[in-house]
Amino acid sequence: MSYVDHTGEISAVLRTADDIKSLTYPNGTTTVFTAPGSATMGQFGLFEWNMVAQSSRSGGHFHKTFSESFYIVSGQVELFNGEKWATANPGDFFYVPMGGVHGFCNPAEAEAKMLVLFAPAPPREKYFEALAEIRESGRTLTDEEWTALYAEHDQYMV
């Protein structure tokens, strides 16, 4: 039991659309930081991921300190479970426990939208912001620099 008092408290938080930041990558894919850990007392993070058609695959990777879940809202998303790729459709749900190898992409001709849930909530927005900055600037990172960036954000490529 995490809450031990015998009465409730006034602690709910409303984040209006004006409070929510988003990030658009050079290819047009947008990430909406709906509920980062800073808004949920670190209990979870919830992002909306809006992928352009024919987006590239994220490389297979895993995380040591958080699980990740994907809920497909619209379009089709290819999901990798560490062994094979499978097509997910609206309403499909994909859970990846800590250490689980996974990846995703949208190879379809139409846009796709999914919700991504991280638990507990690392500051994943900082990772996505770093990736966007690298892509926008055209910087080229060495293998060692990529490995350091990934490790800083609990992302381990396989």
Automatic annotation (TrEMBL):
Protein name: Cupin domain-containing protein
Pfam families: Cupin_2
Residue ranges annotated for the Cupin type-2 domain, each copy included: 55-118
InterPro entries noted in UniProt: Cupin_2, QDO-like, RmlC-like_jellyroll, RmlC_Cupin_sf
Lineage of source species: Bacteria, Bacillati, Actinomycetota, Actinomycetes, Streptosporangiales
Gene3D superfamilies membership: Jelly Rolls
Species this protein is from: Actinomadura barringtoniae
